[in-house]
Amino acid sequence: MKFERRDILLIVGLLLFMIGLTPFMAPVYAALIVVIMYFGIKVYVGKRKQSIERDVGEGICMECGSKIINKKCPNCD
């Protein structure tokens, strides 16, 4: 889990969410929920990115959109 530029937007959004939670619960619990949400989102996005990279493999055919195997499209070639 490396820090990327878009994580700043995630942090700002979660801080605003924490501010919204503070009238309903103690700030410590709101902060704990936000920290858990941050790491949960980071893990989910990482797993999803890994899954997409595994499915794409060498690339995607521009004609039909299928996965390229051995530098050839199984549908077009």
List keywords for this structure.
single chain; 77 residues; mainly alpha; 60% helix
Distance linking N and C termini: 39 Å
**Share of helical residues:** 55-70%
N to C succession of SSEs: HH
Average of pLDDT: 88
Count the DSSP helices.
2
β-sheet strand percentage = under 5%
Short description:
This protein is mostly helical. It is 60% helix and 0% strand.
Can you lay out the helices and strands and say which pair or pack?
Elements lengths: L5 H16 L5 H30 L21
Helix pairs in contact: 1-2
What does this structure look like?
This protein has helices at 6-21, 27-56. The protein contains 2 helices and no strands. The radius of gyration is 20 Å and the shape is rod-shaped. 60% of the residues lie in helices and 0% in strands. With 77 residues, it is mainly alpha-helical.
